[in-house]
Amino acid sequence: MICFLFAMEKEAAPLLEDCQISEATKIGFAKFYACEKDEKKFLVGITGIGKVFASSAVSALRLKYPTVDGLLNIGVGGSLDAEAAPLLQLIVGDKYVQHDLDTSAIGDPVGMVSGINKVYFEADKDLVALVKKASKAAKVKPCVGTIASGDRFIASKEDRGAIKKQFKAISCDMESSAMAQIAYVYQLPFCAARVVSDTGKDPNEYAENCGEAAKRLKAILDKLIELL
Q1: How far is Cα 49 from Cα 8, in angstroms, rounded to an integer?
Q2: Which DSSP letter does residue 118 get?
Q3: The pTM is what?
Q4: 103-119 residue pLDDT tens
């Protein structure tokens, strides 16, 4: 069974309002819902914002629902490369990295997770293909690339440029790479994707485009459920 993971309740609301909920569970800060839509059963999880809430939610999910065999973190987000990932396209992550994890003072590469000694966590190829197929069916063009995460909202052009250069990333968020790390530890297939609501070119971009981005996100989610 697939679990759709969202950082915020407002991201999950359009899907939850459109399906039957048979069970609601709260574990720590995270909320999980057992759902059914068009005879397809799945889970919806709301993690909270930031890497700590995101990673703790994935751990709670794994222990509470051991039959879950795939995680899809879907949401609205920003682009680090307006040419590769312009407004209202879908960014499908094929790799994930934590841009604010830095033990380089002791000789490690920036972003490396000690213990498992990985900088990048790879997405599940089958889930990437599924998300791309759903996006195309919803008439939202997908692009594939690296997503960088950190516990800081990236607003300045300088910070966006530095993360793009350091990690060859095309998108930045606050959850997906932490989820990817815990999914890797638990050997759970994982993929994160973001509909682009802003590129950093204009401070009003998010406000002007978040509504349309949310509509496109819902269309993609509907197609994903059809394909389950």
Answers
A1: 7
A2: B
A3: 0.93
A4: 999 999 999 999 999 99
Alpha-helical segments (H) within the chain: 9-16, 51-64, 125-137, 157-167, 176-185, 205-227
Name residue, tokens 């349309």: 212
What is the average per-residue pLDDT within 199-209? 81
Tokens of 173: 């968020």
Q: Which one-letter amino acid corresponds to residue 228?
A: L
Going by their DSSP bridges, the two strands 169-173 and 30-37 should be labelled as: unpaired
Six token digits for residue 199? 């590129």
Parallel/antiparallel/unpaired status of strands 40-46 and 2-6? parallel
Reading the block at residue 136, the tokens are 């195309």
Count of CB atoms situated within 10 Å of the CB of 21: 12
User: Tens of pLDDT along 128-142?
Assistant: 999 999 999 999 999
Percent of the chain with pLDDT over 70: 100
Per-residue pLDDT for 61 more than 90? yes
Residues comprising the chain, all counted: 228
State the Cα–Cα distance between residues 178 and 162, nearest whole angstrom.
20
Structure tokens at 70: 């795939």
> What distance in Å separates the CA atoms of residue 111 and residue 32, rounded to the nearest whole number?
30
